[in-house]
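Subgroup meeting minutes
Present: P.N., E.W., G.H.
Scribe: E.W.

1. P.N. recapped why we're keeping a running log of single-chain structure predictions: easier to compare across weeks, and new members can see raw inputs and outputs side by side.
2. G.H. added today's entry (193 aa).
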Amino acid sequence: MIILAKNWWAFVLRGIAALLFGVLTFLRPGMALLTLIFIFGFYAISDGVFNIIAAFRRTETDQQPWWALLISGVLSIVAGVIAFFLPPVAAVALLYLIAAWAVVTGIMSIVAAIRLRKQIEGEWLLVLSGVLSVVFGVFMAIFPAAGALAVILWIGAYAFVMGVMLIVFGFRLRSLVRATEHSPQGLHVAHGH
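Output recorded in log:
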């Protein structure tokens, strides 16, 4: 059984964290940039830890390369640590950091979905979340001088949509696990693949 399906809960937890982050930015759009930096740092570190755990729990039958999860996890943790230890960093620098993080994690999600397309159904959700992440990152890089309130709302919208997609994808994986637990042939027979 592939490691992604076994760890469906990690996607749900990541999604809940993203959703909470998104809701908070809409409820408190005027919050201080320092608070936003710390919230982003916490979210990025959480995301990184889940990816690293998934990389080390990978088995020989998994299609997704362990290094893709590991790189994504390490980059997320680095982004989070920088946010915590360099809070006075200029807002533009933070935007570029968030933009780069979003592009890298988006590409990793797309790669994972392509590699898993024969094992799971609903991989388009992971592709869509990856594409949204890349588009968000590119948009942030192109328009770094946008107002602080607009940036906070963009980040909140991105996190909210990403959170919903990760939660839906996690529960789809959970359904796949439950369906294959009753199948003697495992995941490879799921959905006719």
